[in-house]
Design brief:
With 129 residues, the chain is of the alpha/beta class. Helix content is 16%, strand content 38%. The strands form 2 sheets. A 4-stranded mixed β-sheet has the order 1-4-3-2, with helices on one face. The protein has a 4-stranded mixed β-sheet with strand order 5-8-7-6, with helices on one face.
């Protein structure tokens, strides 16, 4: 049987590199691990750490096609981040003009969660642990 050691990274393609870099680092608070411009692809690659773990790779490419988010499309549905205090996290996002959906409760776990979107409308979730 295949023995996966864990999740290594998630790759996200953005339409406006500077806007998305600001969102993921200044609003969500992810830490820059590395940044490179790949001239042959006209593409930036930004490696981000979430609380010192699990990397997100933020890519920019010239004219990427839009990702259908609504109605939900086949494939990766959303990216979820764990938070200790959902109310504080929602307040932080609201202070930065990020709109969140109403807080809901997971019927299976009893945990609270909400959804919001990145600058390219990629669905993101905050899940209270």
């Amino acid at each position: 049987m295949l023995q996966l050691a864990g999740l290594h990274h998630v790759a996200v393609i953005c339409s406006d590199y500077e806007r998305s870099k600001h969102f993921y680092t200044q609003i969500l608070g992810l830490t820059v691990v590395g940044e490179v411009f790949r001239a042959e692809r006209q593409s930036y690659k930004l490696d981000l750490a979430v609380n010192g773990h699990y990397q997100i790779e933020l890519f920019s490419f010239p004219d990427p096609p839009r990702r259908p988010s609504r109605p939900e499309a086949l494939g990766l549905r959303h990216l979820a981040f764990a938070v200790a205090d959902l109310d504080a996290a929602v307040a932080h996002l609201t202070e930065h003009n990020v709109i969140t959906e109403p807080i809901r409760v997971d019927a299976q776990t009893g945990r609270r969660f909400t959804f919001f979107a990145d600058p390219d409308e990629l669905p993101l979730e905050l899940y209270e642990e």
